[in-house]
Amino acid sequence: MNQSCQCQSPLHTLRHRSCHLRPVWWPRAPASPSASGSRSAMVTHHPSLLRAPIPTLRSGVLGRHRPTLLNAFLSTHVACATPPTPHLRLRPLRATAGAGGASPVGGNGGKLAVPPPALGAALLGFARDNFLPLALIGGIIFGLLNPTLGCLANQYSLSKYSTFGIFVISGLTLRTKELGAALEAWPAGLYGLVSILLFTPFFAQFVMQVQFFPREFITGLAMFCCMPTTLSSGVTLTQLVGGSTGLALALTVLSNLLGIFIVPLSLAKYIGTGAGVSLPTGKLFKSLITRLLIPLIIGKVARETSKGIADFVDGNRQGFSVASAVLLSVVPWMQVSTSRSLILSVQVKAFAVAIIIGVLLHLALLGFNAISLLILSRLEQKGESAFTKKEYGRAVILVASQKTLPVMVTVVEQLGGALGESGFLVIPCVAAHVNQIIIDSIIVNWWRHKDQQFTNAE
């Protein structure tokens, strides 16, 4: 049989009508003169390759002639002039980084690479994490720039309502179950209370020995030593470092409640004697009870009597923390506004020295509490005590070394200028309050870094 084309693929023969299939058992025909120079080949194909990927192939034809086509596909001798169709190869697609681009698949198990946060998001996160010191600094700056509104707020005694609101929020956010969890750490809690109310106020004697002008700066820092612990920052930092939140809350609440009775006595002993004045102890008792204890009880009762209020407060703790910081910043804003002329008369060098003294004071309190806990842990050799547990020790060191600003401001207002200008008394304490939060935040980050290294080593 004469062929007009040569095909080496059996599937290719279906696309050309001029191609003919010749089984191997047929008699071989002599080659035509036109194709005498061409080669004839016997092509054998495996049955698994018998597929019909051609869209124009009708399944009916294969269905009627399946045995014939099968025999033809198994072994054929095809002569065709058309060259064989090249095989298509699919290469895997690979994500390549072009100019300025990057592969979406990183080396972290196929996860998409997370882009670095934008500058606006980073600033917003910083402001959210450090809202309290920023609010205090903002209140001071605003009072220095525009004292008119601060003086007007002072005329209407806005500080009384802001302090009342701070302790109402403290009562609303106080959880009873977290206080009960601190019962097993009562030895560490007992030391914390003694340190806050008895040991750290003793440092006021050393501060009063510093000769400095204006004298109110030193007097204010000495008064700051006699205050109870902070209302929120100590608990927040303890929670961040993985310490005992229940113990931190217990120390915060009990020290502020007992401080209502002990703070006036400490001030009279360490400050009033050196200043040569008699403090109105009875008036201080009454003021602390009406402006601290009563609002705290109101907030706690509202939380315990209404589950809806408790759920709302727990679901919006960040908002209540922001509200408490705003109310707290109202107090230094008013004090700075009313004392702006006196503050501007103070040299920058004197103010910087007062800040340094406040920093050294807080470092001294941290060192005292850390060394005391270390000594107590060595004295008790029977098993694992409350002083040797890391979560209890960190809670005590942080909470017992901080001092609260709202109680300090309340005391200064009740003194009525008996120990000097109110603005000068409060300004170094505001700086000391901000500094202790910054220093303790650095310590907390250091502790967390050490814990992470220890976990990775295991």
Automatic annotation (TrEMBL):
Residue ranges crossing the lipid bilayer per the database entry: 131-151, 188-208, 220-241, 247-268, 319-338, 350-376
Pfam families recorded: SBF_like
Compartments, as annotated in UniProt: Membrane; Plastid, Chloroplast envelope
Main location: membrane
Superkingdom: Eukaryota
Record keywords: Chloroplast, Membrane, Plastid, Transit peptide, Transmembrane, Transmembrane helix, Transport
Functional note: May function as sodium-coupled metabolite transporter across the chloroplast envelope.
Family that this chain belongs to: Belongs to the bile acid:sodium symporter (BASS) (TC 2.A.28) family.
Protein name: Probable sodium/metabolite cotransporter BASS4, chloroplastic
Source organism of this protein record: Paspalum notatum var. saurae
Upper lineage: Eukaryota, Viridiplantae, Streptophyta, Embryophyta, Tracheophyta
